Amino acid sequence: MKIGMVAILVVATTMSIQAKDAPAYEKGVLIQMDSSSCGYAEKDGKTIAGEIFGTDGQHKNTKVVMCQEYVLQSERVTYRIRPKDDKHPVLLPVGETAQFRIHKDKLLLRVPEADGKEREYFVLSMTPRSDVAAASKSPARGEIR
User: Fold this and answer.
1) Could you write out the DSSP letters of every residue in 39-50?
2) 107, 80, 72, 87: which is closest to 39 by C-alpha?
């Protein structure tokens, strides 16, 4: 009786493990990296002693914060993406093949030639590739319209 229960438990566990498929990745090429302004960083000139005695001036140091934006070209769509982690962005190799998938509201990207880790990116824009659309509309060689 116990052997039968163990066998059923093993079969059920094996089926549940096999039911979860690995995520399907699309392939694309990182064709460009740009830096763009994504906000400002401000630093006050005030100190605690200056606040108490009223001796600090009202000057602020303001710097423009630059973020990396990548252009990822897949088979049919060109994506403009930005890393979700602004504090520790990883520099991606331009010209390399990347694997990506879209999950909920973010793009998950990994570059096997680099470290292969999956990282989250915001999708800023998506543009259908015009060269693919033109190639599919033009007649093939020998075809009569």
Assistant:
1) EEEEEE---HHH
2) 87
| Helix runs in 1-145, H state only | 2-19, 48-53, 130-137
CB atoms within 10 A of CB 117: 9
Distance of CA 126 to the CA centre of its chain: 13
- Burial level of 100, CB count in 10 A (0-12/13-18/19+)? buried
Helix (H, G, I), strand (E, B) or coil at 86: coil
Contact 72, 30 (CB under 8 A): yes
Residue 118 makes CB contacts below 8 A (sequence gap 6+) with: 108, 109, 110
pLDDT, tens digit, 9 for 90 and up, residues 65-120: 888 999 999 999 999 999 988 777 888 999 999 999 998 889 999 998 888 889 99
User: What pTM, to 2 d.p., does this model score?
Assistant: 0.65
Alpha carbon 100 to its chain centroid, in Å, reads: 8
DSSP β-ladder status, 77-83 and 60-74: antiparallel
